[in-house]
Amino acid sequence: MQTNLAETAFPPDLLVELRALTGRTKAVPLTQDLRAAVLSGRLLPGTRLPPSRVLAAELGMSRSVVVRAFTELIADGYLDARQGAGTFVRPEPEDASPGRGDQEPVHPLEAPLLRVPARMRLLGGLPDAQLFPRALWARHYRAALMALPDSELSYPDSRGAEALRCALAAYLGRVRAVRTTPEQVIVCAGVTQGLALVCRALRRAGVQRIVVEDPCFGPHRETIVRAGLEPVPIPVDAGGLDVAQLPVGGVGAALVAPAHSFPTGGTLDGARRHALVAWARRHGVLLVEDDYDAELRYDRTPIAALQGHAPDHVVYLGSASKSFSPALRIGWIAAPARLAGALDVAKRFEDMGSGLLEQHTFARLLERGEFARHLRRVRPVYRRRRDAALAALAQLLPQARPAGAAAGLHLHVRLPAGVDVAAVRRAAYDRGVLIEDAAQHSAVPERAAPAIVLGYGSLPESAIPNAVAILRDALAHAGAR
Amino acid sequence: MQTNLAETAFPPDLLVELRALTGRTKAVPLTQDLRAAVLSGRLLPGTRLPPSRVLAAELGMSRSVVVRAFTELIADGYLDARQGAGTFVRPEPEDASPGRGDQEPVHPLEAPLLRVPARMRLLGGLPDAQLFPRALWARHYRAALMALPDSELSYPDSRGAEALRCALAAYLGRVRAVRTTPEQVIVCAGVTQGLALVCRALRRAGVQRIVVEDPCFGPHRETIVRAGLEPVPIPVDAGGLDVAQLPVGGVGAALVAPAHSFPTGGTLDGARRHALVAWARRHGVLLVEDDYDAELRYDRTPIAALQGHAPDHVVYLGSASKSFSPALRIGWIAAPARLAGALDVAKRFEDMGSGLLEQHTFARLLERGEFARHLRRVRPVYRRRRDAALAALAQLLPQARPAGAAAGLHLHVRLPAGVDVAAVRRAAYDRGVLIEDAAQHSAVPERAAPAIVLGYGSLPESAIPNAVAILRDALAHAGAR
User: Fold this and answer.
1) What crossing angle do the helices spanning A52-59 and A63-75 adopt, rounded to 10°?
2) Alpha helices in B331-463 (DSSP H)
3) pLDDT, tens digit, for every residue of B323-367?
4) ipTM exceeding the 0.90 mark
5) Does B115 touch chain A (CB under 8 A)?
6) Sheet of B436-437: strands edge to edge?
7) How far is B289 from chain A (nearest CA, A)?
8) Does B205 lie at the interface with A, CB-CB under 8 angstroms?
9) Residues 49-78, chain A, touching B (beta carbon < 8 A)
């Protein structure tokens, strides 16, 4: 970040800090205090100090006293005078930086997945930032902010802005066949927060165990555990959750992704939907529907949300993260009426509601059909990328078995038995490509068949064959060991 | 919200929903399906349908079939044709609305405080929306969004954007004498989420009980309980927390607001600060510092944050809610290094990080000194409002005893013994003024001496005498019963 070096641009709030020195009339205490502030880290390296005459006036000292203090501290190496730019707290020496702190150096692949740097990222669930309509979003953000009455520019309604709840209720009804009302919608910070809020509300209601798909989006299991619930994994196949294996009791909820199970991409078929809802009704189980990427569907048949079949038994979770941008952290819950109040209260005591201005921005885009236009624009782009990924796999890695291609931003790719996925991952990473081991999404990773999640969302179509070629090389390299 | 009625403006995504009807060639099934969609609430009242020729083309039907379906449904009252505007799902009859659902009508004063409508709001902690620099914020939001590399317009770092963590570490050091590094800062959705994350991390570390000030900001007790901890109230007086009453064991943390206890406004004095830190060190207790409104200080002596005295024993919480706007939900944690990792992980599994774009916007304002300029602009405004409130109380309500005036956006106003604060509140509300019963912030509200929180932040200076006059009338009215 560039610092503006104009004379008026030193941080004026620095004066508040330095004012604490008021009353000192000698240079020595000022020197000592400034040195202590630098040594203790209160004044960070690079901080620009006020010009001596400004500081002198603020502290009620003569300017010469301040100049003397600055001169001494520059001589001692605490401050730095830069010609024409001012006086700064001196940056730490270069060679001190690497050894700073006591952190062990870790291999990038050991870091949280989203923080691993890589030239090409084939992670699941990442949309293409280039497709985000920045100018449109900024324009509507400004318009939303300017239109907001003063009385509403305050703490948000913890359920979310009414305009967005209305727009979402209508949108979800049209596009996902969700049956809800604005009073039952709670805006939250993505599906993950939605799940955390629902799980804690369930825990408070006495629920202890929740069915999850196996595999399912791995981090959700940790979110569930942190909310005090125990996940009960039930296998998934190409037809979605294997409902025949559902327990007959002892669980109070079930988290399912009926439209596009993650990461296998299975879709819950009609017969299983009915069986799942019947099971939920019979045992008084709440179904938690994770509808994370359903807007990105590439075949002609829309798969309606499960919620529409049984609105009283399903709490629906969705977000703008895949369809629009995960940087916004905009998500939503559509809850049965009996649960909506508890979720509102939970959200209130958790964070007092989500940021208001981007809520109003998103509401404007929904109301004006801009979001639908965005989806119509990006769907064919992602479909072509998916087709490119499938074609490249067929040509370069015929032994791989891709699945889950009907929707979303990723493929689930089974690799031949015996492949060491960790070695493939390392070899691919050494060649600039970051891939995801599908096993991390399994309840028992050691037992998972070798597979990767191949996210094609954030790569241009033209780069996909190259990425798959690198994957082939990585596979050959890992297999050769 | 106004709906754009231009012909192209019907929600194009409606087609996705209606496409499910493809293949029907008779008007009767189309009529039935549309009727079912309206009855079930999937098509909400007011939804605009596509023009008949567009829908016919999409569904592969002849237009006459669609027109016939529309005509029948209009005749039956499901749809509404508006001349020149299109065909809409008919709004529900007016008289059906009030009885809808099974909610009891509640008095506005029984609703959550922030949702109670009122002409004048004297709530604590509300800044003036008119002072929020909308144009400046929108300009920097746009600039931040446009400058962001594609690679960063994705899931945020769960700790927060690096630019903001750097800017906050420097800012907090300068202005609050906080000693921290960008690696120890976690950006969160306000102090409330910061507290929730800290409490859950403590609970996971085995902590069961946490000292809270009595009184303290009431909702924090509920946030603490929901995180699985038990609050242990310790009395506060004008000198802040009464450290002599701190327990000698059995608590793992203490939540304090040393600069400006809420709502009494007490400031922890120097001797008590030292005693508190010594107690924390002796018993291995983590101090949680709630520094919610410290930037708004009206006397000349800045009160440094407690954190600077003992960075290894204090986790610091702050936000932009009082100093800037609570609509943004921007807050921050500066944690001891040993806790920062756990909070990062907690934030990741809670909501995968806070919204990125407003983080970068706020970072720009901090880096460029714009935030400091904002504070210099608003401090004198709030100080004049505080002075007006004190003057009006002295003149109109000499029996009231205001306290906590040195900082923030509210006064704590003791009322004469025996006053029925609930009755005063109702009488004030009937006269258009919403006030806050201070007792809700006490651990045992029934035992609290009669007092109100008088927030002057969101009222123009000129309106304050009138508001206090209404309060006097309300007091007289309530006393006369």
Assistant:
1) 120
2) 337-351, 356-367, 370-396, 421-430
3) 999 999 999 999 999 999 999 999 999 999 999 999 999 999 999
4) no
5) yes
6) B401-403, B410-414, B451-455, B436-437
7) 17
8) no
9) none
